[in-house]
Specification:
Chain A: GO terms for molecular function: ATP binding; ATP hydrolysis activity; ATPase-coupled polar amino acid-transporter activity. The complex is a heterodimer of chains A (264) and B (341). With 264 residues, chain A is of the alpha/beta class. Helices cover 37% and strands 26% of the residues of chain A. Chain A is globular. Chain B is built from 13 helices and 2 strands, in the order αααααααββαααααα. The chains are: A alpha/beta (264), B mainly alpha (341). The site of magnesium ion has 4 residues of chain A, from α2.
């Protein structure tokens, strides 16, 4: 094959590849053989009822949870393990941390560091993890805050920001590590309705710039407008997936129909 | 007729437009608390009498107090007490953090080891522990460092290597570490789990997460009880005579009074020094608490959000004091916009 001459096989590998991923908490099987693929630059929306395992799946992708079976690959790299000679070796914490750097995560409850200002929140990881020069980091962080529309809030502590502003800082914080993949776990669910738009706008901007994103959301309007694909999960399995417009307007599966009739 | 209604007789008031919607300020006769006043007067009188009596009372020997409070031997002893406190607290805090982390690890062996430590050191009196440390050289006459069952790399006489001062610090620190461990553990547990997750997701290591994210936030919970522990430690140093170490403030003033036969003024001298140190420590604690309250609640030195209409208020008639209405949400309470009056 011409693998040796092409730039690399990884460049053509999907950004995220889940191959029969299963995860249990004790006897509670939360993910049951999930297989899916997210291409470079693709925006995938993940929807499903509460407890269907959406958060758990996202957390597995950046190794906050350890999968019990199956493989998770991000940009061609096996997550959490090193494969040598047909055997899997658990990664040292340091190496697992290195993998996480390239995967940004945004949480439902923002999880900003409350003892740091917005600017310090954004600067923290590039400073400590990448050990970049402070002047450079600050410049980048201010640019990122400007990008999410919060240039004038740089010196505010999270407690002094609205929910929507906090979530935008959280997005800027994740972007500061220049991730190749962004995971959003219900980023607007904790927000007052009038603040949802400002966060979705930032995410739309990201999608337009070609960021690969997996978004767990109940915002079907966003899914329809921005997502390239939509996956419906229920009870730890992928029930249905495909083009968002198609799945939303013409769901095939009874469980999808039942769920959508409730949220739409 | 309607204009008549609007101009109400509130003193010095200029009737605002639409003043009909404003209500009268309440002018009620204030409820009196006669017993409160009586009680306060009795207390003050009692206190003043006590002071006047004490100032003239022979047994206090105030001239002795004045003479000894800045005596070289006393101030040296005060410095020793301060050193005992600081060194043993620093060690206790470091050890306490380690023990707290050990208690929180999933490793059952490490976990039980920390538990056992706490059980022993909290379960026996510190006085007894100090006596034990004083007897260390009898139990272990020499200390060997090296691989077990092999020729040691270093070996030294316990008596020569460890002064009573060092032993006192070890004794106080190891006992205190057990209490600090519980304080630190409560602090670490008080931090939201999402913080750990967010830091980990950013690629921070366990240590970075602990040091930069979890510990600073737990400080708010850790500092107030730790301040109490420092003050308590300052006073506990008076027990080091059990080691026996005799150059601390209390033991030294007892020794002096044994020569001069004036125990009471020397106890007062020691108390003055203890009070002096605790007062300084309390000021220090206050500033530490302020420092670690960053980002929690309001800070006066931070600008408040004026754009979202933090200050929305009606000016009540005549009072000249703006009513400040807090906006919904958990913004900072607004500062007084009127400035100093
Ligand atoms: N750390 C854990 N330990 C035990 N069980 C867990 C843990 N985390 C999640 N679960 C269980 O896994 C199941 C799926 O949880 P998950 O949070 O992934 O659901 P979800 O689809 O994100 O739901 P929601 O929409 O409510 O966020 C739930 O039944 C939950 O109780
Ligand atoms: Mg969830």
């Amino acid at each position: 094959m011409s693998d040796a001459t092409t730039p690399s096989a990884a460049a053509r590998a999907p950004m995220v590849l889940a191959d029969r991923v299963s995860k249990s908490f004790g006897s509670n099987e939360v993910l049951k053989s999930i297989s899916l693929e997210v291409k470079h630059g693709e925006v995938m929306c993940l929807v499903g009822p509460s407890g269907s395992g959406k958060s758990t799946f996202l957390r597995c992708i950046n190794h906050l949870e350890v999968v019990n079976s199956g493989r998770l690959m991000v940009d061609g790299d096996l997550i959490g393990y090193r494969e040598t000679g047909g055997r899997l070796y658990e990664l040292a914490p340091k190496d697992a941390a290195r993998q996480r750097r390239d995967i940004g995560m945004v949480f439902q409850r923002f999880n900003l560091f409350p003892h740091m200002t917005a600017l310090e929140n954004v600067m923290e990881a590039p400073l400590r993890v990448k050990k970049m020069a402070k002047a450079r980091v600050e410049q980048d962080a201010r640019a990122l805050l400007a990008r999410v529309g919060l240039a004038d809030r740089a010196d505010y502590y999270p407690a002094h920001l609205s929910g929507g502003q906090q979530q935008r800082v959280a997005i800027a914080r994740a972007l500061a590590m220049e991730p190749k993949l962004m995971l959003f776990d219900e980023p607007t669910s904790a927000l007052d309705p009038e603040l949802v738009g400002e966060v979705l706008d930032v995410m739309k901007g990201l999608a337009k710039e070609g960021m690969t994103m997996i978004v767990v959301t109940h915002e079907m309007g966003f899914a329809r407008e921005v997502a390239d694909s939509l996956v419906f999960m229920d009870g730890g399995v992928v029930v249905e997936s495909g083009d968002p417009d198609e799945v939303l307007s013409n769901p095939q599966h009874r469980r999808t129909q039942a769920f959508l009739s409730k949220v739409l | 007729m309607s204009t008549e209604n609007n101009s109400r007789p509130a003193a010095g008031a200029t009737p605002p437009a639409g003043g009909a919607t404003e209500s009268e300020p309440i002018k009620a006769i204030r409820l009196r608390h006669p017993w409160r006043i009586v009680f306060a007067v009795v207390l003050v009188i009692g206190f003043v009498l006590f002071i006047v009596d004490a100032a003239g009372r022979e047994a206090y020997k105030w001239d002795f107090v004045a003479k000894y409070v800045f005596d070289r031997r006393i101030s040296e002893a005060a410095l020793n007490t301060l050193q005992l406190t600081v060194y043993s607290m620093v060690i206790a805090i470091i050890l306490g953090v380690i023990l707290a982390v050990m208690r929180l690890t999933p490793n059952p062996v490490v976990n039980s080891l920390a538990w056992f430590y706490l059980w022993v050191f909290r379960g026996t009196p510190v006085y007894v522990q100090l006596v034990f440390w004083g007897l260390l050289s009898i139990i272990y006459s020499s200390i060997d460092i090296g691989i077990p069952f092999m020729e040691p790399w270093f070996s030294f006489e316990t008596n020569a290597a460890l002064s009573t001062f060092t032993l006192a610090i070890i004794g106080l620190a190891l006992n205190e570490a057990a209490y600090m461990a519980e304080i630190v553990r409560a602090g670490l547990l008080s931090v939201d789990k999402g913080q750990d997750e967010a830091a980990t997701a950013l690629g921070m290591t366990w240590f970075q997460t602990m040091w930069r994210v979890i510990l600073p936030q737990s400080m708010r919970v850790i500092i107030p009880p730790t301040g109490n522990e420092v003050i308590s430690m300052l006073k506990t140093t008076s027990l080091v005579t059990a080691v026996p170490y005799s150059f601390d403030l209390y033991t030294r003033s007892r020794d002096i009074s044994a020569e001069t036969f004036t125990p009471i003024p020397l106890l007062i001298v020691a108390s003055i020094w203890y009070l002096f140190f605790t007062s300084i420590l309390m000021v220090g604690q206050h500033f530490l608490e302020k420092r670690f309250a960053r980002g929690v609640g309001a800070r006066e030195d931070r600008k408040i959000d004026t754009m979202s209409g933090t200050l929305t208020g009606a000016v009540p008639l005549g009072s000249g004091q703006p009513t400040v209405v807090r906006p919904p949400g958990d913004g900072p309470p607004p500062t007084e916009p009127g400035g100093p009056r």
